[in-house]
Amino acid sequence: MYHHTLVNHFLEHSASRFPHKVALICGDKRLTYYEIDSMANRLALYFLESGVKRGDRIAIFLDNSIEAVISLFGVLKAGAAFMMINHTTKAEKLEYILNNSKARFAVIHSSSAGILESIHCPNLVSVVAAGSCDNGLHTSLDKIITSENGSAIPTQCIDLDLASIIYTSGSTGWPKGVMLSHLNMITAAHSITTYLENTENDIIINVLPISFDYGLYQILMAYRVGGTVILEKSFTYPYKVIELISKEKVTGFPGVPTIFALLLNLKNIDKYDFSSLRYITNTAAALPVSHISRLRDLFPHARLYSMYGLTECKRVSYLPPEELDRRPNSIGRGMPNEEVYIVDEQGGRVGPGEIGELVVRGANIMMGYWNMPEETEKCLRPGRYPGERVLYSGDLFKMDDEGYLYFVARKDDIIKCKGEKVSPKEIENVLYSLQGILEAAVVGVHDEILGQAIKAFVALEAGSELTEKEIMRFCSQHLENHMIPKYVILLDSLPKTVTGKISKKMLTES
Question: What is the C-alpha to C-alpha distance for residues 32 and 161, in angstroms, rounded to an integer?
Fold first, then answer.
């Protein structure tokens, strides 16, 4: 395997090996590795001629599109760092991200021009616009990438240089910019493609937003090995995605629990041919055990990987598919070239079965949070060797005798009810085991007597006639007294974040 030192080498090396192979399918368009590499070169040349310097931050404010893929590699080839920003981000948050990162350039869709004109970003010197660009204020991306010059662009970067900033939710209310070096991203992609056994024969369908690191890495991983990516806008039209999996002979299908819950609720999908599907991956939150068995029945040829990760290090662990029957509630062990362990509140390592905070050690952990030294110090702490830093995840886990991890809760999600510490995840697992429940989320709410009362939000499968009382009765039969929800709220569906996670924040605020 070719030794990549920069993330853009993924594209460049695959373009040299498979120039005429289809690298990207997006709608009715198919682009080869040569075409994407050439267009990215043209964009990089434009950036350099426009004054972009090594390490500059360039925002990419686009949806899942060909232009977004070309832009991220064009930024890297110019020696800059890209920031994928979800195209639905509102003006106030966008203004914060652009000013916090001191972004000098942005790539947007022409339809988003209005939002930039409504905010104040003094560091922003130039905007490149995809789509119809006729107002004279922005440079046309289409014209740049279809120009004549598409030769390679040499870069002075090394693997310790900044490759990307991914903005993620912060405790202060403003997002935190996770700084990732080329080395961080290459290390993560190498480890993941190793255990997924990816090759140039893989065809990966991606319905996840590429502003979400899980969606972004589908492109990076495929291009690392010379595979093909089918890039969809979303999972809004699930039957279209199902048809593509069958028609294009997809081998890899990454998803999150909300996608798989919706998938399992579809009618007549067993008529499609899914024999090409080699693997399915899940992260963002653990799959309910009941969903695991149903997915395996629906996709009998696919290996199902339960995984856990953080934006701060991309991926932490995976459960080998052959272990699913033995430990369906586990999210596996640390991935290749990484060490994970659990510590108590004093930082001492704990033994099997004890609950503590998960710590991650490896070259995949972030450089830190952009311009947030205090936040960085909280989670990047001294490691084994002088000067080394390891990542404190903020998540509570326990580990069995064989090193397999079991998620307990976010440290700040633990519910304290009747003087006892309660894991929302444990209650959610019980709820999901009740036939007829499609989605479940458990939170703690203030209670004068209990300290915190347990409140469960539930969405039912189509046709289910479960009632709140029946759900409460089921919980009382399967949970200890202090873990039984005081409230059960039935909703048509549970609110989601842009990354597909059930949003407990939105539930509690409403």
Answer: 28
